[in-house]
Amino acid sequence: MKVIDTKNAPGAIGPYSQAFVVGNTLITSGQIPVNPADGSVPEGIAAQTEQSCKNVGAILEAAGTSFEKVFKTTCFLADMGDFAAFNEVYANYFVSKPARSCVAVKQLPKGVLCEIEAQAEV
Q1: What mean pLDDT is reported for the chain?
Q2: Residue 20 gets which letter from DSSP?
Q3: How many C-beta neighbours within 10 Å does residue 70 have?
Q4: Contacts of 43 (CB under 8 A, 6+ apart)
Q5: Nearest partner of 37 among 4, 13, 17, 10, judged by Cα
Q6: Angular region, 112: left φ>0, alpha ψ -120 to 50, beta rest
Q7: Which candidate in 53, 75, 102, 114 is catalytic?
Q8: Percentage of the chain modeled with pLDDT above 90
Q9: Is 75 a catalytic residue?
Q10: What digits encode the pLDDT tens for the residues 36-71?
Q11: CB 105: neighbour CB atoms within 10 A?
Q12: Distance, CA of 106 to CA of 88 (rounded, Å)
């Protein structure tokens, strides 16, 4: 197993890693929309989805893979009413249309509106 750790995505805020590569598979931790440069969180679901996708992308790149190689995502929304707006941004990144689960949850870390985790071939 290989730990993936990049400064281009937010660092773990608990006892976990950004991602692991096991064999030829990358498994990321959930990425919330925190800007790794300054710790800020943008306003609104579209901007937050964009930042979460950028964070996933940074981890994919650090592991030597890309959005095209993602085969599974799990997405968490604070409000299922944001589903359409979330999908609009998400579709620009996850062009391979990976298998996906998307659920609404009561609350996400730091009060954010979305979180995305991914699995990809390396």
Answers
A1: 97
A2: E
A3: 25
A4: none
A5: 10
A6: beta
A7: 102
A8: 98
A9: no
A10: 999 999 999 999 999 999 999 999 999 999 999 999
A11: 12
A12: 22
| Residue-level length of the chain | 122
Residue type, 24: N
Residue 7 in tokens: 């400064």
HSE-up (13 A, CA, CB side) for residue 77: 18
Residue 107, token pair as written in the block: 């609350």
Residue type, 4: I
pLDDT bin (cut points 50, 70, 90) of residue 13 is confident
Q: What is the pLDDT of residues 68-86, one digit of tens each?
A: 999 999 999 999 999 999 9
Asked if residue 117 lies in contact with residue 73, where contact means CB atoms within 8 angstroms, the answer is yes
The pair of structure tokens assigned to 94 is: 């996850």
Rounded alpha-carbon distances, angstroms, from residue 121 to 41, 53, 54, 102, 106: 29, 17, 18, 21, 31
Buried b (16+ CB within 10 A) or exposed e, 1-38: eeebebeebbeeeeeeebbbbeeebbbbbbbbbbebee
